[in-house]
Amino acid sequence: MSDSMLQRAQAIADDLVAIRRDIHAHPELSFQERRTSALVAEMLQTMGIRVQTKVAKTGVVGRLIGAPDGPVVALRADMDALPITEANDVPYRSTVDGVMHACGHDAHTAMLLGTARLLAEEAAAGNIPGEVRFLFQPSEESSDDEGKSGGRRMVEEGVLDSVDVIFGQHVRNNMAVGYINLTAGSVSASSDAFYATITGRGCHAAYPHTGLDPVVLTAQAIMAIQSFVARQIDPRESGVISVTMINAGTATNVIPNNVEIAGTIRALSPEVRTQLHNGLRQALSVVETLGGKFALNIREGYPPNINNPAATAFLQRTITELLGPDTIQESGPAMGAEDFSFYARVVPAAFYNLGAASDGEPFGNAHTPTFNINERALPIGTAIMAQAALHWLQTYKKGDKSY
What we know:
Layout lengths: L4 H7 L1 H13 L8 H13 L3 E6 L3 E7 L6 E7 L26 H20 L6 E7 L12 H7 L8 E8 L7 E2 L3 E4 L1 E10 L3 E2 L9 H19 L6 E10 L5 E2 L2 E10 L2 H15 L1 H4 L3 E10 L2 E3 L1 H15 L4 E2 L11 H4 L4 E7 L22 H18 L8
Parallel strand pairs: 3-4, 3-5, 5-16, 6-15
Antiparallel strand pairs: 1-2, 2-4, 6-16, 7-14, 8-12, 8-13, 9-11, 10-12
């Protein structure tokens, strides 16, 4: 292949845009990505790639095997949309009422299909000394009735078996096209939900001394929660507990028996995550000191997304060689969550953000009705993923961790 991977990706840019716009116009919610999955499976099959469907309910796994005993690199894209009504006036706007690709997963899917196309050409030329595994994942944005997201289900169903390294990307429409955000270590936070019931003893509001006011108990508990985070978490670490819901009472003259609260727990490391869980329970116990009771339920969501240092360094070198110096921007981790983290805690992983900002007026933020991306980013993300997989397979042997 005489042309560079970036030149080859630029040559199929119109196809990438067409795929992305088709998926954008037909968004599907988490674990409902049947049309998208069928499109992905059909396109992979036409490339000669082995396809497995109905993985993690609606996911697709493609396997491009050049050497059966060689190393295995996995590449991941998510496919689900959000329950948002699109406000963009574009020819490819959502045709599904109340559903929209407002986070760029349409672009991720299009780019990974483009990557598969470029690497299938390499395989035909005998340049794939191992396996590239393409993971088209459902439900990054949500979890099912069992509390499992698409990434977690994909891992549980064995998509990482024999995989040596995995790479993933996410468009970022507040960073200029041509720039990449890639940092070793924590890149996004864990995301857990908590639900607590604080019980006192109801009574007439005119005679509070005859009962035990759970609203006052709850106020004390919330202050204890915030004091714990501020005074017992190392200030050099990052941790958040936010109480976002409070529900109590049915009348202005009645002190209720119970107060229900709920919120989110975020951390950038497994250690702080555990500390926050324990600290939340400890903080709530203040109500017992005051004569009340509490019940706590913590529903674990996504773990912290942590980039492997060696895999990140390898990807940084690859991107610099492909796009030139001064392309990579490092920044601190975000407190948002990303279920690529389920892959990253099993095998060495590197996850980066791809610049996709508008050339003119800024786009809306992620998860808003006016979210959009600059499609000039599509061939760049395609080329990075293809070059990373190809370079890795041609450089390292099975089980090699020297990258």
